[in-house]
Structures are given as structure tokens and as C-alpha cells.
Q: What sequence folds into this?
């Protein structure tokens, strides 16, 4: 009763098509205005799990020791090695140009590295000064030998062969943004009482500051790239670093959105014209999808919610889902048009009546179609990964808007278009659906047996789905960033960083015992000590750190490792290899100039908090490795071999955060499928009012989704930021076919009383629309295979595969199950003559 009242009220609205279009035009103007605030964000913090304790650790460690906010620019001269005076001059010019870029805090290269053996300088004389490659009296041959063998700078700023060098470009931090993010987190966590609307105010300020930060970061990276390009005539230059990875991710996504988005629309236009041979059936769906996208983008711009790498495909999905709704309406309208023509009615007499009847007959299945698709994408909101959650609600919002637009714009425009479409034969059954119909009706047992076999194979494939993701694999091998990451990986110690932090007792001058100070009696000169924290650096602490560093350096997946143990190894060259005593450690630290202490000591030790840090990078271009196992092995070595307590060890960094995201992705796949199954079953049950139909409608679509995931397992395609949504997309779009098919089958079964006849009529009518919509989706997403961003390629091809499987399952397994449950098996030969004489069904 309620459904009939809703449909009646909707039909009354169609009496005012001009008013509907006028309201939509006004809303479109507003949406376009707010759409200017639509933005992209692929920064590293969009790739982590909300509430992840590792994230809190990472932020705290970064605040103390410095984070990953730097770029690496490598320089390999065309001629000679890096120590050629001309090449050093080029490196100097390059460093100066980079240092002048707004947003760059400093640039550090081998030109700034302290030289202790070119010629040798006693450690006790460092306070008086030290040489660098900029010094006039430096011996370049000795400097080359020293730097290429240096445990500190080798594979950090210079390759072992001396052919290439790297400049570390440290970037300014946005302190205002950091303060706003900290205040927002405190307000949300309840640590600070939210006075009035302070939380909303802080969120708005943070969004604005974030947008400015991203714009400035894009300009900075563009400037660095521009400077790099100016020096390509002097050598080969590669750019890398975590900010670079994030920037290139969003650059590829933006390029794909505009390049392939336009190409997708062109292909959709061609497909629609090929299906219907009439421009009105091209323009109406395309216009409706564009309006839907404009409305959704306008709302996102108004709300200040950016699109990330994970949600970047929402525009393509919205376009295709909206066009699919339109195709069902077009096919139904043309069926009714042909019916009237065959019955001798004049289609021109009441074209508005056909439009209203079309909308009335398709209202219920399209409503439940929309709700079911929203439920499937809504399952993504169960994830704790913010961009995955955002993708879920963005799709729910867009799909709801798409339904409203389709059921207002399509009939309103159709009612105002003069004339009628050409009266071509519209109900001829496609050869494709006829073959599937025949087998579903007369070979249901064979289809069921094949489905069970596919399920068994799929279970094995599902067990092989992996999380083996690497940033380097996200970019095509022919891209600049892939080449840069491989170069840095192979020759400069790895790309993706992680840190191991060891906690000791904090420095407290008053807490130092007389015994602890006995070793330093010779320092008591009566003068104020410029660096009293040097007494905190004891032999025991350095031994623990050195033990961890030695362990890390034995791991093949770990590249360059830096810590105070690295710095001590430099000092061993002056002590004949004998470890420094507590006295010698304090003496060396006391002699270091402030600028060297800031560069060489402070990034690896913080006496105030009592922590020492090991900075390492993983080699992504090498053999695959288990990140979680690496972290577990580090902890086990620290606790079992070095006798450190579990609470003394913190392992953090982008590698750890990325691994947390991947683990959460895997867990969310399970949660997503469970939620989708429940929500979809409920929608089927409400629409069809039959538990049997609801259960049968689920089976083929779950099989299709499981088969796609199994294919990923067999093909060794890992779950990543985009393929995480495959289950929801497969079920969300594929179940649309099941809804329309079951809705039509129920009508035909009530009319004919024969399940096989109902299947024949359903294939000949709604099967045509299912074929057109699925083919449209496959064509639209297949074009993404030409992207340079590998997750986009994978996502596009897997969605296309999912739609093919869903179409086949809904036109074979679903009708076969209906026949087996409602008609039972019958010998094929009994009905062959009848099948051959069967007329073409009409609507």
C-alpha cells in the first residue's frame, strides 16, 4: 500500500516536467559553484588506518626526530665521476637552486659532509673546524676514497662507485596545519572539552589549511622537477621520496580521471548509439550521468571532502551506474512502444502515457536496485581506513542522487521531446540470450554442476590472495617515478623508510650517581659544560643499538641503516678499531660543533626523552618479503638477544603504517562480504517477498564476486588500495541484474504459470537490458587498462571481469536454479520440438 502511494505521488510530479527541469537547472548552477572546492588528496596520511596506535607512535617519533618529509634528487653526470670539479660545480649549482625554492628548509649533499680523513683531522680538533668538498685545500682523491667508503654517507648521499650522488631536500613543516590536526584529534578524543562549536570550527580551519598545504606542496614539487629538468644536459637525475610517491599517485589519478574519463564517455556514447541507433537514447543517459556527477562533486566541494586514490574511481562508477539505470528505462519504453505498435495503437497519440507507464513499471525494481547497490558500497564504511570509508559514503550519496536524477530528468525530458523514436523491431531476442536461455531451461543440472566445480576451484584461489603490495609496483615500469625508485632502491639504500626506537631512562643531571660520574672527573674544569647531555651516552646504550643495527644489516630486505652506531664506526677508524669508552664518547660529543651535532647526533638520539633511533629503508625492488614478519623478527631479536623489554622497543615509519593498512584491508574484505550478503538478502526479501527468490538471487552474484577474488589469488594480484573495493563493486553492480531479472521473472511466472516459459520471456526482454548494461560497464572500465597507475589498471580490468561473470551467472545459474526449484528437471528431448517451434516472446 505504501509503495503504491509513493508511486502515485511520483507520477503526479511528472505532470510538471518543465518545473522539474527548472528546479534541476537551478540546483545544477549551485552545484557547479561549489564544485570549485572539489579536491584530491593522496598524501601519506590518507594511506593509514584511523585510530591505528602505530600512527600515534609514528607522529610522536616524527615530532622528536624528524619524519619522512624530504625528497631525494640523484645526479649521475654524463661524463666522469661525481668528484670531477665540473660535476661538483654542477652539484653546487643544483643545491643552491633547490635551496632557494619556497618551502625547502635545507639541502644536504656530499658537498656538506664533514671530511675527517682528507687529510686526517683528530677528533679533538673538530671544534676548531673541519673540511668539506667546498674547502679550497681539500684533497679530492682522499675525499673520494673517504666518502665512498664511509659507513655514514655511502649509499646515502653517494653510490659505492662514486658515479652518482644524492641531494636530500628537507621540506618545511606546516606548523599551523599540525596544530589544527592535533587540536581536532584532542577534541574528537574528548581530551579537550569542545566549547560551543569549536570542533566544527577547527575541522573547517583544518580543511582550509590542508588545501593550502597541498597546493603549496604541489608547487614545490613542480619547482623541484623544473630545476631538475634544467640540468638534464649535464647528467641523469631521478627524484624520489615519500612526498614524491604521494604527489605522483595523485598526479596519475588526476590524469586518469580527465583523460580516461573523457574516453569512457566517448565509448559510452558509441555503445549507446550502437545499441539503440537513436541519438535521444544517447543524449538522455549521458546528460543524466553528467548531472549526477555535477551534483555529487558540488556536495563534496561544499563539504570540503577530498577524493583520495581509493575513491578516485567514484566518478566513473557513478557515470556507469546512472547510465545502466537509464538503459533499463530505455529498453522498457521501447518494449511498450513496440507493444502498442503491434496492437494497432498510435504511439503518437499519448507518448506521455508511455513515459509514465515506463517509470511506473520500473520504479519498484529500480528503487530496490538502488538500495541494494548503496548497501553494497555502504559496507565499505565498516572499514577503519578513512579513505575506504569515504569511498563508501561517496558512492552511497552519488547512487542516491543518480536515482533521483534519472527518475526526474529522464521522464521530464522525454515528455518534452516532440515526435517518437523510429518503430524498428525492438523485441527480437539476442542470439546471446537465446543460447543462455535454452541451456538454463533444459540443462539446469549441468549448469549447477559447473557452478559447484567453479566454487571448488574458487575456494582454493581465495586461499592464495595476498597482501604483497609494494609502492614501486604501483607505477608502470616506463614511468619516471618507477625508474627513480628503482635507482634509489638499487644504489642508494632503499626507498620506503622505517624506524626502530629504543627507550632508555631519560637524561637527568641530578640523577647521575657519583659512580656514573667517576669516568668523567677529568672534565671538571670549573667551566659551564656547553653540552652536559653527553654524559647520557653510555657504552651499554651504544652496544644495544649496535646489536640492533647489525641484525638489520643482515636482513636482505633492509637497505641502508643509520644510527649512533654508524657514527661510532667512523670514530673507530681513529682508535684502531677499539670501542670508545664512556670517557671517549663524552669527549667526542663535547668537541662536535653545533652544526655537526644537529646533523649527525640529534636525528638519532634524544637524551631528554631517553630514546635512540635507528633509521632504515626497505628494498622494494628485491624479492617479496613479509613486512609483519620483519617487524616481529626485529622485536624478537631485541627482546631475546639484546635483553630489551618489549616496552623499550618501538617500530614505526611508513613501512609499518602501510603494512597496518594492508592488514586492515584484508580484514575489511571479510567484513564487507558478510555485510553485503545480509543487506542484499534483506533487500531481495522486501522486494520479492519470497525467501526462495532472495536466496537464489544472492547465489550467482556471490559466486561471481568470489571468482574474481579467486582469480586475483591465482594471478598473484594482491589486495591493494583499489582492489579492496572489488567485492563491494562486484556484488553492488552485479546484483542489479539479479533484481531486474527476478522482478521480471516473477511477473512472467505469475502470467504463464510455467517456470521455463517465464525464463524464456525474461531472457528475451530484461535479458536484453542486462546485456546492454553489462557490456556498457565492461567497455567503460576496460579503457582503464591503458593507465600508467597499476592499481587503476587492475581495478578497471577486474571490474570488467566481474561484470562479465555476473552477467553470465545471472543469465545461467540464476534461471537454472529457478527452473530446478520451481519446475524440476525434465528430459531435453521431450521438449526439443516445442523449443524449435517457440515464437519470439513479446513483452
A:
Amino acid at each position: 500500500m505504501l509503495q503504491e502511494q509513493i508511486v502515485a505521488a511520483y507520477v503526479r510530479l511528472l505532470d510538471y516536467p518543465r518545473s522539474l527541469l527548472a528546479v534541476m537547472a537551478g540546483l545544477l548552477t549551485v552545484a557547479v559553484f561549489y564544485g570549485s572546492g572539489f579536491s584530491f588528496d593522496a598524501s601519506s596520511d590518507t594511506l593509514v588506518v584511523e585510530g591505528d596506535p602505530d600512527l600515534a607512535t609514528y607522529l610522536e617519533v616524527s615530532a622528536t626526530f624528524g619524519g619522512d618529509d624530504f625528497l631525494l634528487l640523484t645526479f649521475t653526470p654524463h661524463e666522469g665521476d661525481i668528484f670531477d670539479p665540473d660535476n661538483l660545480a654542477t652539484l653546487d649549482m643544483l643545491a643552491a637552486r633547490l635551496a632557494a625554492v619556497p618551502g625547502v628548509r635545507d639541502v644536504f649533499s656530499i658537498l656538506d659532509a664533514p671530511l675527517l680523513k682528507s687529510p686526517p683531522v683528530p677528533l679533538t680538533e673538530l671544534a676548531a673546524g673541519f673540511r668539506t668538498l667546498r674547502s679550497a685545500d681539500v684533497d679530492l682523491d682522499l675525499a673520494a676514497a673517504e666518502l665512498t667508503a664511509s659507513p655514514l654517507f655511502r649509499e646515502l648521499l653517494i653510490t659505492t662507485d662514486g658515479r652518482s650522488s644524492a641531494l636530500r631536500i628537507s621540506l618545511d613543516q606546516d606548523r599551523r596545519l599540525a596544530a589544527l590536526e592535533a587540536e581536532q584529534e584532542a577534541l574528537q578524543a574528548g581530551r579537550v572539552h569542545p566549547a560551543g562549536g569549536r570542533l566544527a570550527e577547527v575541522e573547517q580551519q583544518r580543511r582550509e589549511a590542508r588545501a593550502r598545504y597541498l597546493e603549496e606542496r604541489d608547487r614545490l614539487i613542480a619547482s623541484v622537477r623544473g630545476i631538475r629538468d634544467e640540468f638534464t644536459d649535464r647528467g641523469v637525475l631521478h627524484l624520489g621520496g615519500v612526498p614524491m610517491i604521494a604527489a605522483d599517485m595523485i598526479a596519475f589519478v588526476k590524469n586518469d580521471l580527465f583523460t580516461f574519463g573523457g574516453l569512457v564517455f566517448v565509448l559510452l556514447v558509441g555503445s549507446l548509439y550502437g545499441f539503440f541507433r537513436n541519438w535521444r537514447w544517447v543524449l538522455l543517459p549521458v546528460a543524466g550521468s553528467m548531472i549526477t556527477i555535477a551534483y555529487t562533486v558540488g556536495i563534496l566541494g561544499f563539504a570540503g571532502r577530498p577524493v583520495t586514490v581509493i575513491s578516485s574511481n567514484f566518478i566513473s562508477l557513478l557515470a556507469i551506474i546512472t547510465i545502466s539505470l537509464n538503459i533499463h528505462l530505455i529498453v522498457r519504453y521501447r518494449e511498450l512502444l513496440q507493444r502498442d505498435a503491434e496492437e494497432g495503437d498510435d504511439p503518437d497519440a499519448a507518448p506521455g502515457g508511455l513515459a509514465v507507464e515506463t517509470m511506473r513499471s520500473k520504479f519498484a525494481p529500480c528503487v530496490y536496485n538502488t538500495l541494494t547497490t548503496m548497501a553494497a558500497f555502504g559496507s565499505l564504511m565498516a572499514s577503519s581506513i578513512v579513505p575506504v570509508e569515504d569511498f563508501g559514503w561517496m558512492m552511497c550519496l552519488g547512487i542516491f542522487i543518480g536515482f533521483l536524477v534519472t527518475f526526474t530528468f529522464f521522464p521530464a525530458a522525454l515528455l518534452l521531446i516532440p515526435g517518437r523514436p523510429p518503430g524498428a523491431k525492438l523485441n527480437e531476442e539476442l542470439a546471446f540470450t537465446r543460447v543462455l536461455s535454452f541451456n538454463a531451461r533444459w540443462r539446469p543440472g549441468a549448469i549447477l554442476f559447473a557452478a559447484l566445480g567453479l566454487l571448488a576451484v574458487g575456494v582454493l584461489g581465495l586461499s592464495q590472495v595476498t597482501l604483497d603490495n609494494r609502492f614501486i609496483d604501483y607505477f608502470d615500469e616506463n614511468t619516471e617515478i618507477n625508474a627513480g625508485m628503482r635507482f634509489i632502491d638499487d644504489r642508494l639504500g632503499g626507498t620506503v623508510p622505517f624506524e626502530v626506537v629504543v627507550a632508555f631512562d631519560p637524561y637527568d643531571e641530578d640523577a647521575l650517581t657519583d659512580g656514573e660520574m667517576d669516568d668523567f672527573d677529568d672534565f671538571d674544569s670549573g667551566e659551564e659544560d656547553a653540552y652536559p647531555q653527553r654524559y647520557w651516552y653510555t657504552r651499554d646504550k651504544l652496544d644495544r643499538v649496535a646489536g640492533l643495527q647489525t641484525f638489520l644489516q643482515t636482513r636482505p630486505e633492509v637497505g641502508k641503516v643509520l644510527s649512533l652506531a654508524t657514527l661510532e664506526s667512523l670514530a673507530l677508524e681513529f682508535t684502531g678499531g677499539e670501542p670508545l669508552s664512556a670517557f671517549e664518547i663524552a669527549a667526542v660529543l663535547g668537541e662536535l660543533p653545533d652544526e655537526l651535532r644537529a646533523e649527525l647526533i640529534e636525528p638519532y638520539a634524544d637524551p631528554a626523552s631517553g630514546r635512540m633511533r635507528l633509521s632504515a629503508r626497505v628494498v622494494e625492488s628485491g624479492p617479496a618479503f613479509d613486512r609483519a614478519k620483519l617487524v616481529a623478527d626485529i622485536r624478537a631479536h631485541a627482546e631475546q638477544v639484546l635483553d630489551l623489554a618489549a616496552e623499550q622497543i618501538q617500530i614505526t615509519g611508513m613501512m609499518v603504517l602501510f603494512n597496518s593498512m594492508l592488514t586492515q584491508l584484508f580484514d575489511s574484505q571479510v567484513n564487507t562480504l558478510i555485510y553485503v550478503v545480509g543487506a542484499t538478502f534483506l533487500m531481495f526479501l522486501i522486494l520479492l517477498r519470497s525467501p526462495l527468490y532472495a536466496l537464489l538471487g544472492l547465489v550467482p552474484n556471490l559466486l561471481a564476486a568470489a571468482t574474481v577474488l579467486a582469480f586475483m589469488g591465482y594471478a598473484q594480484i594482491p589486495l591493494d588500495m583499489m582492489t579492496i573495493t572489488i567485492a563491494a563493486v562486484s556484488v553492488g553492480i552485479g546484483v542489479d541484474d539479479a533484481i531486474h531479472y527476478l522482478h521480471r521473472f516473477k511477473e512472467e511466472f505469475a502470467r504463464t504459470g510455467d517456470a521455463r516459459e517465464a525464463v524464456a520471456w525474461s531472457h528475451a526482454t530484461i535479458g536484453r537490458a542486462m546485456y546492454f548494461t553489462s557490456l556498457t560497464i565492461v567497455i567503460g572500465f576496460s579503457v582503464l587498462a591503458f593507465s600508467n597507475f597499476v592499481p587503476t589498471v587492475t581495478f578497471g580490468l577486474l571490474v570488467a571481469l566481474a561484470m562479465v561473470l555476473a552477467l553470465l551467472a545471472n543469465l545461467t545459474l540464476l534461471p537454472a536454479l529457478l527452473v530446478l526449484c520451481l519446475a524440476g528437471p525434465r528430459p531435453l528431448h521431450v521438449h526439443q520440438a516445442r523449443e524449435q517451434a517457440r515464437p519470439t516472446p513479446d513483452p
